[in-house]
Structures are given as C-alpha cells and as structure tokens.
Amino acid sequence: MRKLFKKTQSAWEPEKLPRHIAIVMDGNGRWAKKRSLPRTAGHAAGAETFRRIATYCKNIGIEYLTVYAFSTENWKRPPEEVEKIMQLLEKYIIEALGKMERDKVKMKFLGDVTVLSPKLKELVAEAEELSKTFDGVQVNVCLNYGSRDEIIRAVKSYAAEQIIESNANTESTKKMEETIGSLTEEKFSKYLYTADIPDPDLIIRPSGEHRVSNFLLWQSAYSEYYFTDALWPDFNEKELDKAIIAYQSRERRYGAI
Ligand code: IPE
Ligand code: IPE
Ligand code: MG
C-alpha cells in the first residue's frame, strides 16, 4: 500500500495575514545559560532577533507589531540585568532614529515611561515624535508595561476626567451617574495605552512558557495564541511563518457560531 503523507502547508496566504501581531520576547536568559554565557548576552541576542522580526513584519506587510520588552514586574531582577536591558533599548532607539525616515516605521512605546532614565525618556519621546506621521509598519514596544497597571491607570484617568467635567456642572451627581452609565467597552479602550491600535490578532509566546505574564489582558479578548518552544534569540522568519500558518488555520468565531 502506498504510504500517505499528510500534506503540510508550506506558505501562508498573503490575503489572510494578521493585521496585528504581538510577541512576548521570552527566553533570552535560558538561551544564554545553554551557552554558558551571562544572561545579558541573551538579551543582546534577543535584541537582534527583534530587529530581524520587525524588518520581516515590515517586508511582508504586517500593519502592527507589538513586542513585550520589559514588564512592570521585571524590576524585580538584579539591577545589572535591568541596566543592560535599558542600555540595549537605548541602543535600539538610537539606531532606529537613524533609519526611521527611510523605513517609515512608526514607533510607539506602551507603558509607564515616566520612571525611565532622562536619556531613555528623551529617546522615546524623540522616536515617537519623529515617526508619528509614518505609515509603514507600526512597532509598539511595551516598556515598563503591565496590563493590570494599564487598566487601573485607564480607570483613574476616566474617573478624573468625569470629576473635572462634573465640577463645572451644577447638577453634578446626576451628570456623574449619566457619564458612568454611558461608559462602554469602546470608550474605555481609548483610555488604555493601546488607544487607536486595533486588538492583536495573533499573540506569540516563545520559550515554552504557556502564560500571559500581564500582557495585553484587555486587548487579547479574542486574540489567537501561538506557543512555541523556540527561545526568543532562536526565533526567526521561519518561526514567524509557522505561527502565521497556524493562525490562518484557525476559525475565529467571536462567540458566534
Ligand atoms: C525575556 O527573556 C526578556 C525580558 C523579560 C526582559 P528572559 O530574561 O525572561 O529569559 P528567561 O525567561 O529567563 O529565559
Ligand atoms: C514576560 O517575560 C515579560 C517580557 C518578555 C518582557 P517574563 O520572563 O518576565 O515572564 P515570567 O516571569 O516568566 O512570567
Ligand atoms: Mg522569561
């Protein structure tokens, strides 16, 4: 009997690409450990992968790429490691500034950047300002980002806005009730860091961990997840192709049938 081989799809369909891909860039430390290198070498290698993947996303026509670079919980790490990550981010932004005009990459930073070093804060502001009108791929770097923190901040800024409005109004309590009652999911999402960015279609987590780690809790309500054992520094164009092919095989139902 002839042996039957299961046909594997070798390429993704260009007309069904995810509009927005989000990635938890995880596994740098383990990658370094496997090579008896310091963890910081893993972060340097991870930064290279980020460059490659961002370029690939731009070339294949992905509209939004969101990467988790540093979480609100990552401050728990040794100060030398945190320092190295911040240095790599500085280096990345300086390079990006140099070629932004050519690549038309729009950069956004999601997270509380107010606590970063003055230099990094300045670079973040410069990159956002310089690229705000660019219409190539939009790269969102989650830096000092935590989804719970993001949601609490959104609630606070929404409430603060209503208080300011109601103070100017004589029927303040009634007005307040009305405004709180009129809060919708759509309106609320405008108070998040991701205001104006569509929800991710595909969220990739490499390194074999099957958890969310405080990443895009609100935005991922209907995202498709893709997990792979590859460590982030080993992740490449082929791995992204595999993730896109898996995504394209899924049926997104959004609660309907
Ligand atoms: C991800 O890699 C980078 C950051 C969280 C900043 P890790 O440093 O978490 O690598 P592992 O998980 O220890 O391998
Ligand atoms: C998630 O990775 C955060 C980033 C990749 C920036 P972590 O390594 O911090 O997540 P946990 O601790 O394994 O959940
Ligand atoms: Mg990790």
Please give a structural write-up:
The chain has 257 residues and is of the alpha/beta class. It is built from eight helices and six strands; from the N terminus they run βααβαβαβαααββα. The chain has helices at residues 28-34, 39-60, 79-103, 118-131, 147-167, 172-181, 185-189, 237-248; strands at residues 20-24, 64-71, 106-110, 138-145, 202-205, 224-227. A six-stranded parallel beta sheet has the order 3-4-2-1-5-6, with helices on both faces. α1 crosses α2 (39-60). The two termini are 40 Å apart. One 3-methylbut-3-enyl trihydrogen diphosphate is lined by residues 24-26, 68-71, 74, 209, 211, 213.
Bound chemical compounds: 3-methylbut-3-enyl trihydrogen diphosphate, magnesium ion
Quick one: biggest sheet? 6 strands, parallel
Q: Structural class of the secondary elements?
A: alpha/beta
Radius of gyration: 21 Å
- The strand count comes to 6
Model regions low in confidence, pLDDT < 50 over at least 5 residues: none
- Percentage beta strand: 5-15%
Q: How would you describe the shape?
A: globular
SSE order in H/E notation?
EHHEHEHEHHHEEH
Termini separation: 40 Å
Give me the number of helical elements. 8
Strand order of the largest sheet: 3-4-2-1-5-6
| Helical content (DSSP H or I, runs of 4+) | 40-55%
Mean pLDDT comes to 93
